[in-house]
Design brief:
This protein has 232 residues and is α/β, with parallel strands linked by helices. The protein has a single domain, classed as Rossmann fold (3-Layer(aba) Sandwich). The protein is built from 6 helices and 9 strands, in the order E-H-E-E-H-E-H-E-E-E-E-E-H-H-H. Strands 2-1-3-4-9-8-7-5-6 form a 9-stranded mixed sheet, with helices on both faces. Strand 1, helix 1 and strand 2 form a beta-alpha-beta unit. Helix 2 crosses helix 3.
């Protein structure tokens, strides 16, 4: 399995995605945009994972590589390469495919539930309610032909699917205690009291069972994206 990772911040890595890749002996390459924005041909890949980051997809003047990254994602989707977007990665998929990305009415930071949105057809199905880890201040409109999979009290579009091979998640199923600590260490200045912003203390006190549950759903998402097509 040839996997390419789009990494936007040095502190935001794969976390719980790493053991899933290791179990499949994946060959992993990474574009670290904060070092070198070079991208491989997307058609040569079996999976693309677009991670989060503190910038906006609209910051193309400050980060001109966003143009090429969106083009890369668009080409991958059009060619049926499995693509998973996490947080900023989800917003990049939306933007690359024609959706608008903009400031949300509320920041959503910490552990808050999402709710599944019923959909017809062969879409990934989330549980009716799942507590997940969030860290975002922007949201997106669904791109054309996308199917919404989940919502939350603060954010109407939490996840969407396009076709069989593209999943965009505004939240972090890959969360581990270590990565949440890293978020707090690097982005803790965003933790101002608000209805959907937890304190650092509350976030870091989250029990291990919460991480175990979201990591199970991470595995299901990754398996779904990469399993052979049911039509083949």
């Amino acid at each position: 399995m040839r996997v390419h990772v789009l990494q936007h911040a040095a502190f935001e890595g794969l976390a719980a995605i790493t053991p899933w890749l290791a179990a499949r002996n994946a060959t992993i390459s990474t574009t670290r945009f904060f070092e070198n924005p070079a991208l491989p041909p997307p058609r040569d890949l079996d999976l693309i994972i677009a991670m989060g980051g503190p910038m906006s997809v609209n910051d193309e003047a400050e980060f001109p590589w966003l143009h090429d990254e969106k083009r890369f994602i668009r080409e991958a989707v059009q060619n049926g390469v499995p693509v998973l977007g996490v947080c900023l990665g989800a917003q990049l998929i939306a933007s690359a495919l024609g959706g608008r990305v903009y400031h949300n009415s509320q920041k959503e930071i910490g552990w808050f539930p999402i709710e599944a949105v019923p959909a017809d057809g062969n879409q990934f199905v989330f549980p009716a309610r799942l507590h997940v880890f969030h860290w975002h201040g922007e949201t997106f409109d669904l791109p054309p032909a996308a199917v919404r999979l989940a919502r939350s009290a603060a954010t109407e579009n939490q996840a969407f699917q396009l076709g069989r091979r593209t999943l965009a998640l505004q939240f972090h199923l890959e969360a581990t205690p270590e990565c949440v600590q890293t978020f707090v260490d690097n982005c803790g200045d965003e933790l101002h009291a608000a209805p959907f912003v937890q304190s650092a203390h509350d976030m870091l006190a989250t029990p291990g069972t919460a991480y175990a549950e979201v990591n199970i759903w991470l595995t299901r998402v990754l398996n779904y994206l990469t399993e052979p097509s049911p039509n083949r």
